[in-house]
Amino acid sequence: MMGQFTKRQWLTLIVISIADFANAICVSLQAPFYPQEAEKKGASPSEYGLVFGIFELIVFLISPVYGQNLNRVGPKLLFNGGILTTGTCAIFFGLLDRVEGHYPFIVLSFVIRIVEALGNAAFLTASFAIIAKEFPENVATTFASLETFFGFGLIVGPTMGGALYQAGGYTMPFAVLGSALIITAIATAFVLPVHNDLDQESQHFGGYTSVLKIPGVIVATVSIIATSMSIGFLQATLEPHLRQFELSPVVLGLMFVINGGTYAVTAPCWGWLCDRRLRPKIVTISGCIFVMIGFCLIGPAPFIPSQTLLWLTICGLIIHGLGLSAQLVAAFSDALATTVSYGFPNNFETYGLISALWTSSFALGAFIGPSVAGILLENIGFRNGTMFIVLFHFLIGITATVFVSCSRAPKPYTEIDSDGNIRGSLADSGRSHSPSLSTRQAHSHQNETIDRLSSMNSLIVCNSYSNRAGGWSRASYSGRYSHSYGSIEKRYLLERTT
């Protein structure tokens, strides 16, 4: 599969993967070092906790704006600008120890973190959209590859940062790794191919309101939020839960990378399954099951007659990582393919919408998760609190199961040329078991002809890409005729065979 990639595709994938890795390192640097420095300046846990939370909130709010304007601004500009902003903010964040006074320190922390969130959201939204554009047949696999590099970056960041912190103090890790990200931004400005659809924009199909009216997209979106909430839940409560074992700092740190490491390793496997073997919603259901089992073991759940055991917690974290990769990878490819199958244009407008929707939904869950976790931990304890995540994923799994059970297999379509000849049998891949964005030919019937109405000649002309958003195209969504959402270079009419 990857052996068939073009030089342009390989270049795009390598550049974005390196940038994703460097970006994850910078984003994850604050957690190990900032709280201690903030306390030296007189900041309370609630204050510096909000510094972390504001990052996810800004990403949630700004991502839809980026998504709706991605094609207008240009994905490469947004990509490079986001990386450069994130790297610069990382360096500035490393200079906060030189700020005197409690309130100046906190105010500058908020300002830097907000600007960094603006850059990070821009980078993520653009990178996901570029991947969807460049790899229409392997959206889930390539998206999973990016998430693998991002996951490794989240692991390497605190580890490398700790070594640099020990060698040069608070400023050293931020200065070194922030500079590395800036260098990456400069390199991508020269290396990354230009991606845009400015000459192929279709009429407006609607924004997020229209996208979120699609039932399949709603299921995918809620799945992203729930998965992100499970991550945030553990970030806020796992350390207090593990205090009973009196672990060393090194071992405690390793506990926090178990699920992330599992996620990074297994994400490509789930991506391949989504692209080649299973419907994304079936992968989503599998992910819900894994997350439920994982959280039942980490506690363990109140209904499990056992005390908290370290080996059981480790097993739960590994299984949780499997569920993370399944849900996050499946949700992106599912939302994208489903949206296009409902008539949205197969261009950067749609890619930007779905990329921003994924980024925004993940940020929302990351903001809600720790907040809810703290309340539950304080009032009902860790073991009972985990049931909130289990119940939430149970409901999503049931919803996805009902959705899959009620959906029908795709009916075959026939491609017709201007003379009425059948070119090939086609299937709507957005509703098929293989959710790639390109429509796939199944059987060839070169010499076979069909009867058609006399008005078909004009209909064929009207169905060109330049008129996709016109009256014929809009009417075709629920009628007899439907256009393909495969390559935007193709112009053909699809007629449902009888």
Which key features would you list for this structure?
single chain, five-stranded antiparallel sheet, disordered C terminus, mainly alpha, 498 residues, 16 helices, 4% strand, 5 strands
Terminal residue distance: 34 Å
Give the amount of beta strand, in percent. under 5%
Strand order of the largest sheet: 3-2-1-5-4
Helix content, binned percent:
55-70%
Tell me the number of helical segments per DSSP (H or I, 4 or more residues long).
16
The whole-angstrom Rg is: 24 Å
List the helices and strands and how they pair.
Blueprint: H1 7-27, H2 30-40, H3 45-73, H4 75-93, H5 102-134, H6 139-168, H7 171-191, H8 208-211, H9 215-242, H10 249-255, H11 258-276, H12 280-298, H13 310-341, H14 348-406, E1 413-416, E2 422-427, E3 440-441, H15 456-462, H16 471-475, E4 481-482, E5 493-496
Helix pairs in contact: 1-4, 1-5, 1-6, 1-7, 2-3, 2-6, 3-5, 3-14, 4-5, 4-7, 5-14, 6-7, 6-11, 6-13, 9-12, 9-13, 9-14, 11-13, 12-13, 12-14, 13-14
Would you write up a description of this structure?
By secondary structure, the protein is mainly alpha-helical. Helix content is 69%, strand content 4%. It has 16 helices and 5 strands. The chain has helices at residues 7-27, 30-40, 45-73, 75-93, 102-134, 139-168, 171-191, 208-211, 215-242, 249-255, 258-276, 280-298, 310-341, 348-406, 456-462, 471-475, and strands spanning 413-416, 422-427, 440-441, 481-482, 493-496. A 5-stranded antiparallel β-sheet has the order 3-2-1-5-4, with no helix packed on it. The longest helix has 59 residues, at 348-406. It is globular. The model is unreliable at 198-204, 409-418 and 422-498 (pLDDT under 50).
